[in-house]
Fold Phosphatidylinositol-specific phospholipase C X domain-containing protein.
Amino acid sequence: MGTFFSKQVERRKLVTSQKQALSTRLSASGETFPGSEHRPADRMRWMSELGPSRVRVHQVVWPGTHDSATNKIGIPFVTRPFAQCQSLSVYEQLATGTRLIDVRVQKERRVCHGVLTTYPVDVVLDDVKRFLGETESEVVILEIRTEFGHEDPPEFDKFLVEQLGEHLIPQDEAVFHKTIAELLPRRVICVWKPRKSPVPKPGERLWNTGFLRGNWIDTDLPETKFESNLKFLGLQPPVADRRFFYRVGNTVTPQADNPVLCVKPVTLRIRGYARLFIAEVFAKGLGDKLQVFSTDFIDGDFVDACAGVTKARVEGTA
């Protein structure tokens, strides 16, 4: 027992030192980067503000959410704090400016996070369609995957096409160099990641797992995750040469060997350093590699940062 508590004390010291290290980096480096002062007049339509005929898909820094549809997961005050990564509905996230949605499903087509389930995936799709109906030129990446440890929903690919057919942008590498205007009226890139079912093929209306990649490390240590994100981003080709979306997650996750298991207090260790991360990306000469940037509990400032870099790229100042 004494050894266990000793390890926990050391763990807490390590977490504290890493939080302090990021705070020190922020004080020394600041949060300035190309486009950092930009604030969209209307976050719901921030892509439209930049000009659909000017913005190419590869130029966009896509603000994304991690475990997007967990706002009502589990039982309030009981199991919800252990699995909730967003407090806003998918529609509210999109209206705030989110442009990549991450949804995990299980066999009965319910959204889940680990063993906990929440509403049917139909709620997510209805939210996406509502948002599309209220906007004209906003493009959304909708990632839907079968959660680890669960079975694929039967014929789920057909279900997605039935629900989103008129909005779907077919799988095509040429999309990355097209402008948003050239994609219209289709506005959803739907990436379907089954565990065992056949993956979507080139030319089909759904995209396969190879088009949305990332290097996720499962840790609750903020500076460790921050440095890992920089390292793996540096190994990627520039966005102009890339034929896939590469995601960086500005998140840390609770660990079973640590007494702090609720999502929010853990992820807050890194959440406030999103702008610092972008600033360091540019300082290290990696500004042409950032593409999808995701977070827990997204807010307008996170969206503004991504929209600002996108604007700077479009204007040739990044």
User: Anything to note?
Assistant: DSSP finds ten helices and nine strands in the chain. Residues 28-315 form a domain with the TIM Barrel fold (CATH 3.20.20.190).
